[in-house]
Design goal:
Distance between the termini: 25 Å
Radius of gyration: 23 Å
Number of helices: 22
Mean pLDDT: 84
Low-confidence stretches: 281-310
Helix content: 55-70%
Order of helices and strands: HHHHHHHHHHHEEHHEEEEHHHHHHHHH
Strand order of the largest sheet: 1-2
Largest sheet: 2 strands, antiparallel
């Protein structure tokens, strides 16, 4: 950071203004994401130019980088919508719901299985929001209210965001910091990430049916968390850490079969009186669009799939699961078979940007190319390939024609249905990422982080270190980017304060970044897009923000306690 960049209350408050406006308009005023994001974007630009000395030319460069970053996300949103509608128009989600409940109609078991266990497995092999895109429609098909169908997988997958996606966030942290001990830092991360995993299981049960559901699901949650958290912690000590989450998440997924056969979870239960997240049916709210959509209390807007009646003519379970199996297989093969992944990843697309500097001395070096991505190994390509396979199979089997015959009313055209959701979601993503890049390049993000560090003591900084990681994930919608942005800063601050274990602070940074993915705008928008409730992002955040704050506090307390005990690194 430049010595000219002021770290004081005035500049910190100005840097906080765009974030405060964003959260206020989203959560309190309940504006749609593209409206709230636009306010945040213009506020960030105004502060950058007026207070932080960002020249107009530099503002245009930072904004262009934000737009380029958005291309990466948009290439998930559009394919995800195609993926969803290819399945939905063949009644694939209704088939999944009907066929799966033939094995067990225990709703809470299924909500945990999809919203915690399966989404964690998907995160282990394919991140960048893909797990949320895949699981939110599955929860909808089970009858979960739409807002909760997004919030639950956001909470359920958060713990897997460091060692998941075959460790991309972890490898970024290793790259940008010179760790005293890579092994001890990985071990510390394994300990800290067990906290959001365990809390996620109990939180999802509590959201479903409060304490009755928590008591009922406790045995399953404890078993799965022992596999997830304990398995990942054990794995980082014996195999490369980037494979630890895949190992734990895969074993957790395999454990669902014997758990479903357990008498406790093999059938529906009357032990839970209030099923708060489940749709009991569409309310009498007006069907303004004539598409079978109605309001659902506390959960957003129910899609037509919520009201679909079971039909013996629906496709089989293997066919319904086909697109998800193809997606998982493609992601796994390209990640594990290194020569294939390298060959496909050799084709990269990127743009070049010049060096820019602010009047306060913040310099961003030239990038040529800036943040290139490989389209052949991009999640969007995997989604499109999976959708194509599903489309060809479903059409050959006659499931589209059968679905049309079952429908009570004509369906909206495919392109129209995709674009109706994609356009507002795209505006929101572009605005969020331009805002983030402007705040980064003007120095606002660094001022916020340094302000926290400047007033912290040894214990308070240990407690707040996950908050900085979460801030980075919220700003960038990525734990990887958060580690790149703040990893070095956290390491330097821990050294300056003294009395802090470096492995614990770096672990707190990445654990915070993982937790922060539950509130990252990119993931939230991907979820609302897949669930068909674009514009309800504020409602989703009203569920996930308290969870992130509570879990971040628990992780911070764990860091302070472990540091005081002299465990996991020498302070």
């Amino acid at each position: 950071m430049s010595a000219l960049l002021p770290v004081n209350a005035t500049y910190a408050a100005l840097a906080l203004l765009p974030l405060a406006l964003l959260l206020f308009t989203l959560v309190v005023l309940r504006w749609r994401a593209h409206e709230a994001a636009s306010v945040g974007m213009f506020a960030a630009a105004g502060v950058a130019v007026a207070a932080y000395g960002l020249p107009v030319e530099a503002l245009s460069v930072a904004s262009a980088k934000g737009v380029w970053d958005a291309v990466f996300v948009l290439y998930v949103i559009l394919p995800a919508l195609v993926f969803y509608h290819v399945i939905d128009r063949a009644d694939g989600f209704e088939a999944l719901r009907t066929r799966i409940t033939a094995f067990t109609d225990n709703e809470l078991f299924l909500v945990l299985a999809f919203g915690w266990v399966f989404v964690s497995f998907m995160q282990s092999i394919s991140g960048f929001g893909t797990p949320i895109v895949v699981v939110a429609p599955l929860l909808l098909a089970l009858g979960v209210k739409p807002v909760y169908s997004v919030a639950i997988p956001l909470i359920g997958h958060a713990w897997a965001n460091t060692f998941g996606t075959l460790g991309v966030a972890w490898l970024a942290l290793v790259q940008v910091t010179e760790m005293e001990s890579v092994a001890v830092t990985a071990l510390a991360l394994g300990v800290l990430l067990w906290i959001p995993n365990l809390v996620a299981g109990f939180s999802i049960a509590w959201i479903y049916g409060r304490m009755e559901a928590v008591r009922y699901a406790a045995p399953m949650i404890l078993i799965v968390s022992l596999i997830h958290g304990g398995g990942q912690l054990a794995a980082v000590t014996v195999i490369p850490p980037e494979f630890a989450n895949f190992f734990a998440a895969t074993v957790g997924l395999l454990a669902l079969a014997p758990l479903a056969a357990w008498d406790r979870y093999a059938s529906a239960t009357d032990a839970i009186e209030n099923r708060l997240v489940m749709t009991e049916g569409l309310t009498p709210a007006a069907d303004v669009d004539g598409d079978g959509t109605g309001a659902v209390a506390d959960g957003g807007v129910a899609t037509a799939a919520d009201a679909a009646a079971p039909d013996d003519d629906l496709m089989s379970l293997p066919l319904a699961a086909l697109p998800f199996a193809v997606l998982a297989a493609i992601a796994l093969v390209t990640a594990v078979v290194t020569p294939l992944g390298d060959a496909l990843g050799s084709l990269q697309v990127g743009l070049s940007f010049p060096e820019i500097a602010t009047g306060l001395g913040v310099v961003t070096e030239a990038a040529a190319p800036y943040d290139p991505f490989a389209p052949l190994t991009h999640p969007g390509t995997f989604l499109l390939a999976s959708a194509l396979v599903a489309f060809l199979v479903y059409r050959r089997k006659g499931h589209y024609e059968a679905a049309v015959n079952r429908a009570d009313e004509p369906r909206t055209g495919f392109s129209r249905a995709v674009l109706a959701t994609a356009i507002p979601a795209s505006i929101a993503v572009v605005s969020f990422l331009v805002m983030a890049k402007v705040m980064d390049h003007s120095g606002q993000v660094l001022v916020l982080a340094e302000s926290v560090a400047s007033v912290a003591t040894t214990n308070t900084y240990g407690f707040l270190s996950p908050l900085i990681g979460s801030l980075g994930a919220f700003m960038t919608s990525s734990n990887t980017a958060s580690n790149i942005l703040f990893g070095g800063l956290q390491q330097q601050t821990a050294a300056q304060l003294g009395g802090l274990s470096e492995p614990l602070i770096l672990a707190g940074q990445s654990a915070g970044g993982a937790i922060g993915n539950a509130i990252s705008p990119g993931n939230v928008i991907l979820g609302t897009t897949a669930a068909g409730i674009v514009g309800r992002e504020g409602d989703v955040l009203r569920v996930t923000i308290p969870w992130v704050a509570a879990v971040g506090a628990l992780v911070g307390l764990a860091i302070v306690s472990l540091n005081a005990a002299g465990l996991l690194g020498v302070a």
